[in-house]
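Hey, sorry to bother you again with one of my protein questions. I've been staring at a protein lately and its backbone has me curious. I owe you a coffee for this, so here goes:
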Amino acid sequence: MSYDLTITKEAHTENSFLMESTHPKSSLLDQNNELYSNVFTEIPPQPKIAKPGHLTEEQIKKFFDEGFLIVNDIFTPEELQPCCNDIEILVDNLAQKLYEAGKINDLHEDCGLFQRLTEIDKEFSGASILIFKSQKLTKSFQNLWSNERLLNIAEQILGPEVSGHPVWNLRPKIPNSKIVQVPWHQDSAYFDPDSYDHMILTAWIPFLNTNARNGGMQMARYGHRTGKVAHHTCSPGDTWYVDLAEEEMQKTLGVDLERDIITCHVPYGGMLLFQNITPHRSLLNISNDVRWSVDLRWQSPKEKWGFYNLQEGILMRSEKQPDLEPDWEKFLSTDRKTEWQKRYSKKDENTDDEFNTCVSGPWFNRWEIVHRNRHIKSFRFDNEEAN
């Protein structure tokens, strides 16, 4: 079942709550509005003054034409090293907690950044999930997110007003773990319908050279051109992810599975830029190293955040405020993952367990449930009362 939502952007925004509350869940799967395709394919007016990091005219055209772009050598090792140092501290803090609680017998302090979490996870399965749930935006990641060259690029794609989007993630992909193998999806499938009508730019930044062997990314070229968000389902295997079937990519988004699937080799110091409706996935990591990466997002502050009113974004660039400094204190006063766990997790004896490896997400309310795993079972749906 699908609905023809050929409406204006303003009507879509005003009526999004009505649609969500009156239509069956499956109708939300098909909010396919051709009206928005120009948002994702038409290049906005470019800055008149060249700035450090600016993409070339050819790169900008490629981004809007294909829906993604690999940018090499945007960072120096010295700029990324503070983030690597903070990741090591994050892993050490987790190891200490698990050790003190008797969950692991060895701190594995002799292992480096790309091996230690794997060894911890062998003793406590789900350690990588705890990292995902407990990550904090340290100063090094704040500096990376608001890096001048990144904001100059964001300005080329979004316009002169740029905000950080509420959703960012540090991702540890340990070897041979399907729990951290993210299937095909469009990012807007994790957001609410208010995200459908505008560009949300993502920079996926790895902390080592990435390829097909160590959990690199695959993109579905041209999958953004219709401006549609396709039918997704929840949730494959022992995961909390949404899933976009390849048949649906072909039917709804016009993806040619033989020609349009691109494996992205992104080097350390580089990044992968893509749009919120470009289909993508990460591959299984069959190397011996943890593939660490961070995904950071930006959008225009004039648009709705599209994330269930859990958290607002953070203004990073404004024509009216040339000396603007991001208000990190205000942004960090809300932890979206803590908020969504409070709002959407069922209350039981495991809810407040700091070693609970279930992840509940508001997107479970939006998509068809085809596999009821432990993450789904821990979720409190809108029609269920809080305990």
